[in-house]
Design goal:
heterodimer; A: 322 residues; mainly alpha; ABC transporter involved in vitamin B12 uptake, BtuC; two-stranded antiparallel ribbon; 15 helices; 2 strands; B: 249 residues; alpha/beta; Rossmann fold; six-stranded mixed beta sheet; four-stranded antiparallel beta sheet
Chain lengths: 322, 249
């Protein structure tokens, strides 16, 4: 049984359906709340996919990607707060530069240790950033966060902002997907599966880990800065470990080994949270049990199981035609 | 003929356990030779020192006349040593083709390219296919590496090593765990590769048909020390070797 890549148009169909689906939300929605929900899905989806480049692809379980997500958000929030909303768009760019610099420097530190130590160290740095933001009330607003962050000009219109968001998120995912299937992406998967062998091909494991750490952080930062304009506010929770935990959960639920797995995981978790949250105040208990059930039933993740099913059907078909 | 690899009084111990004791020998460029010895004789440990995975306590290891002791495996591999492992060291979740291809991309210094898909790199693809054909694995190119039969996994491991165009190739028990038919096929294949790729080949092996069938020179290790060195005939008739090792086999 050989595994042939599907015809090229199937990927194009998938992209078209996905973009079309999200593009139609403002047209079909019955309230602005649904727009808000779709925006959350897009931002979390990007954050989760970027995170999975690190974990699912390269095998580096960071428990501190909230650091970069928060950094992106706070660059936008603080610059708009102190310098005016004209700085909204430049702040996204400056925030990403800051994320690149931070992830490069921290990356040099955290990548030196492997496995669970890497996870713990990233968690520690994430919590450190949370503490600083939390305590530095005069500058960051501490626990209150910053409200009233508005984008300039026509982006003040929520629908316009939504399309702006949609374009940036889809563009970012396209870039990440190209990376995942390039020689660089193959090298990253090899680093996960057999770092010793990679070294013996004459390639540096840590150098590749640092590269993907920066790339993943960069898009986490972008996701954070885009989030600031959706709720028009930022808060310290964006740096908190639960934010890092959320993308881990999304990746597991959607499937680590599929590019779009974490995105589907993000969709599932946000919709579940929304439905269950409206229904009962014990929502976290219900969500916890639901996710536990799903992980037990679908160990490969939602997309992973679907993919597995497709392969099984192809095998059956091939056997029947023999 | 020039020596490609020279070991000079190489010594390695772990605590009180001397795993390599004063081993000296020279491997001539272009030769095919075997290292034999009972389990625990220090054969793999010796390979590990040659490739920089372990550091000897004393002695020199010269590759093309230059001491490589203290250098990292990456540096040593760049100087022309290839190695296949006792337990095939592969990228299990990638296809057979991509296992070889990632090595080709490394060789062509294209692993930093992040935009065009892997399939678009024709030169690496062609090279990978030609190596798979040499190994007889081309029909399995699209299968995942972990799905391959044990013997084929070991061949694939050799294939990955060949990509880097080593002058010296070290094979650690290439036929271990294979069926008699697989052994026969592998033996002929290795001899073919040795000629086709213009290699200097050193292999560790317990299969005596392979050792006495294709090696031009045999070295015997016992308890970390070099017990004997010579042509297959000399080794077969060496009393010490027969008592220590061959007699039992």
């Amino acid at each position: 049984m050989t595994m042939k890549p599907g015809p090229k148009y199937s990927a194009a169909v998938l992209w078209t359906l996905m973009i079309l689906g999200f593009a139609l939300v403002p047209v079909l929605m019955s309230s602005s709340y649904q727009l808000n929900l779709a925006s959350h899905v897009l931002v979390w989806g990007l954050f989760a996919v970027a995170f999975n480049m690190l974990w699912g692809v390269t095998g580096m379980l960071s428990f501190g990607q909230a650091l970069y997500y928060g950094l992106g958000a706070y660059f936008v929030g603080l610059m708009v707060e102190y310098l005016g909303s004209a700085w909204y768009l430049p702040a996204i760019g400056i925030g990403m530069l800051a994320v690149a610099a931070t992830s490069f420097l921290l990356g040099l530190l955290v990548i030196r240790v492997g496995g669970v130590y890497f996870t713990m160290l990233t968690l520690a740095f994430g919590q450190l950033a949370w503490q600083i933001t939390f305590k530095w009330y005069d500058f960051t607003g501490g626990d209150d966060g910053i409200q009233g962050i508005t984008a300039p000009g026509f982006l003040q219109n929520p629908i316009a902002y939504y399309y702006f968001l949609l374009v940036l998120v889809m563009l970012s995912m396209w870039i990440l997907k190209r990376m995942a299937y390039s020689p660089f992406g193959l090298m990253l998967r090899c680093v996960r599966q057999n770092p010793e062998r990679v070294r013996f091909l004459g390639r540096r494991v840590r150098r590749n880990q640092l590269r993907v750490y920066i790339v993943s952080s960069l898009f986490a930062g972008l996701a954070g800065s885009l989030m600031a304009g959706i709720d028009n506010s930022i808060h310290t929770d964006m740096f908190f470990w639960t934010t890092s935990g959320e993308v881990i959960l999304m990746s597991v639920l959607g499937g680590l080994n599929q590019f779009f797995g974490p995105f589907v995981g993000a969709v599932a978790i946000i919709i579940i949270e929304d439905i269950v949250g409206a229904w009962t105040e014990y929502w976290s208990l219900i969500i916890g049990s639901l996710i536990m059930g799903m992980v037990i039933l679908f160990p490969k993740g939602l997309v992973g199981e679907l993919h597995h099913l497709k392969l099984r059907m192809m095998q059956l078909k091939a056997r029947r035609s023999e | 003929m020039k020596a490609i690899l020279e070991l000079e009084s190489v010594h390695k111990s772990f605590g009180g356990l001397h795993v390599t004791q004063n081993v000296s020998f020279s491997v001539m460029s272009g030769e095919i030779s075997a290292i034999i010895g009972p389990n625990g004789a220090g054969k793999t440990t010796l390979f590990n020192q040659i490739t920089g995975h372990l550091q000897p306590n004393s002695g020199r290891i010269l590759l093309k006349g230059r001491d490589v002791v203290g250098q990292s495996p990456q540096k040593i591999v760049a100087q022309g040593i290839g190695r296949a492992f006792q337990i095939a060291s592969l990228f299990p979740d990638e296809t057979v083709l991509d296992n070889v291809k990632v090595a080709c991309l490394s060789k062509l210094d294209q692993t930093r390219r992040f935009w065009r898909p892997v399939q678009a790199f024709r030169q690496a693809t062609d090279r990978a296919y030609s190596i798979l054909e040499d190994l007889g694995l081309e029909k399995q190119a699209d299968r995942l590496a972990f799905e391959l039969a044990h013997g084929d996994q070991k061949l694939l491991d050799i294939g990955i090593a060949l990509v880097l165009e080593p002058q010296l190739l070290l094979l650690d028990e290439p036929t271990a765990g294979m069926s008699p038919e697989e052994r026969q096929r592998t033996r002929e294949l290795i001899k073919k590769l040795w000629k086709a790729y213009d290699l200097t080949l050193v292999f560790i092996e317990h299969d005596m048909d392979m050792v006495f069938g294709i090696a031009e020179k045999v070295r015997v290790l016992q308890l970390g020390a070099l017990l004997a060195e010579g042509t297959p005939d000399e080794i077969r008739n060496n009393k010490e070797v027969v008592t220590a090792y061959l007699g039992e086999a």
